[in-house]
Amino acid sequence: MKLIYIIFIITNFLYLGCRNESIDYIHIKSINPVDTNFIDLQPMKDVLKNIDVVLLGEQSHGDGSTIEAKIRFIEFLHQEMGFNVLAFESGALDCYKIWSDILSKDKNATVYNKKLWMNYFPSQQIIPLFEYIEKNAKASHPLYFMGIDAGGKLLRTDLDLEFTNFLNEYHLNCLLKNNLGILQNLIEKTSFGYAIFSQEDSLALLNNLSKIITFLKSIKSNNPDSLNSFLWQKEFEIIEGRTKFYHYYNSINYGWSSFRDSIMASNLIQLKENIFPHEKIIVWAATQHILSHPTAIKFFINHEVKFMGEYLHEKYKSKVYSIGFTSAFGKMWNYVTKEVVDLKPPTKKSLEMKLLNLNNNYIFINFQSPKNKLFFNKSMPAKFLGNIEINGNWPQTLDGMFFIKTLKPLLIRNK
Questions:
Q1: Would you state the pLDDT for residue 227?
Q2: Disulfide check for 52: which of 41, 116, 319, 407 has CB 3.0–4.6 Å away?
Q3: Burial class for 315, CB neighbours closer than 10 Å (0-12, 13-18, 19+)
Q4: 195: domain range?
Q5: Among residues of the chain, what percentage have pLDDT more than 90?
Q6: What pLDDT is stored for residue 102 in this prediction?
Q7: How many domains does the chain contain in total?
Q8: What's 87's domain CATH number?
Q9: Is residue 388 domain-shared with residue 282, that is, in the same domain?
């Protein structure tokens, strides 16, 4: 019996060792944003040496450990690889206002969530990011904070104040003076795209939006605040596009997802081409948005959907690199139910189970390396989307992945 046990141990060791040799991976020693000794991340310089846009995903918007890992990685990219722009899955105008607040020192890291769209921003884990951005705001190479999403909070909460102030700057406050009430009402109805409104109201909104956009386009590019006017223009173009979408389709479906992602891709391309043409950009978004070939995932095979990642890979090709995040165990904060829930353990054939055999808490996998293409280039379940197992050929739609063995949930700070 003892001999059988020894043979089992030796065989199992050789089997795991053989499997480990089949995977190229980078051992990450820490995900703590305070840990600024980036020796473990140095191999990432070879992976990303020719990359202009890094897309950082997340399983859901309630993954505390993922937020921590992304912040540390952002600090590394900014300090050691020259990535000087951070573009968020949040309203373009909202994030510009936050950046303006940072520059003017009008706000601090604990209150920025008031202008940010997604529900995870009241978290404890996000604070170090804004502290880092604040610390470097006046440096020779700041980390610019921008947004790319299709709409945000300002137009649902502060339209009268914000837009009236904007018009007053140009002594054109009489423009649209009689339309702000109806515009506010209709914008609130289209908030997040979930409310359906009448054809008459949508036509009235489109008429008003056309006037606003025409005015904003008339502002010359040499205006000292041209970025502000440009972002107002984009904000209203987004609402115009959303209104047209519901005017013709009048329903929620995957067409809305494609529309939203097309806007995010367009906003990012505008940032890259017109605002920061000589800068490298980091994008923070849910993993769904950074997928380059969604049909490689079983869930999306029967849906005609195109995500931001696909647009960006078409535009910038090998200059874009997308990274998904996943975990084997732990907990997440469900931002819909506002509850902490347990992750289901990985199944035997899952990607996470294969990575557990490497016996590391944090691992980076470059799907583009020859070994990894051979090992991972097949359909297998993984928890990149929503922390639930979904079958997909992941190297066909993500360029790399970050594995966190045990996920901590997002922690909500006291208000």
A1: 72
A2: 319
A3: middle
A4: 154-264
A5: 52
A6: 86
A7: 2
A8: 3.40.1660.10
A9: yes
